Amino acid sequence: MQKFKNTVIEFELTDESKVTLSLAFILLLKLKNENKGMYEKFNKIIMNGPKDLFDNITILYTAYLCANLEHADKCLTEMQFIESIPDNMNYINEMVQELVAPKKK
């Protein structure tokens, strides 16, 4: 995956492995073309604002799919992803914030 200066972050799963997340626009466009249903679910949340914790998890999962489009066949399903993320709401919210409003690096 091409490195997008301030839009790629690492996210630690419960087994201490790390996955890459990104919401770079070009990757979102590719996701829209390859997985329209997931893109539309994400877009609705972003345009209307997250309503609950699971909306934030959807944002993270979308970023996971975007960052791993080259290996989509090896990606976790949404349920596998949810089962693999830490039960730490602050961490989830911090990662979402870093993705949707990245700081310059």
Give a concise summary.
This protein has 105 residues and is mainly α.
Percentage beta strand = 5-15%
Helix content: 40-55%
Query: Which residues form runs of ≥5 with pLDDT under 50?
Result: none
- Order of adjacent strands in the largest pleated sheet: 1-2
By DSSP, the count of extended strands is 2
From the spread of the alpha carbons, the general shape counts as globular
Summing up helix and strand content along with how strands pair, one would put the structural category as mainly alpha
Distance between the termini: 19 Å
Largest sheet geometry:
2 strands, antiparallel
Rg on CA atoms, Å: 13 Å
Strand and helix order: EEHHHHH
How many DSSP H or I helices? 5
Topology summary:
Blueprint: E1 8-12, E2 18-22, H1 25-34, H2 36-48, H3 53-67, H4 78-84, H5 89-100
Antiparallel strand pairs: 1-2
Task: Describe this entry's structure for a reader.
With 105 residues, this protein is mainly alpha-helical. It has one domain (8-100). It contains 5 helices and 2 strands. It has a two-stranded antiparallel ribbon. Strand 1 (8-12) and strand 2 form a beta hairpin. Helix 1 packs across helix 3 and helix 3 (53-67) packs across helix 5 (89-100). It is globular, with a radius of gyration of 13 Å.
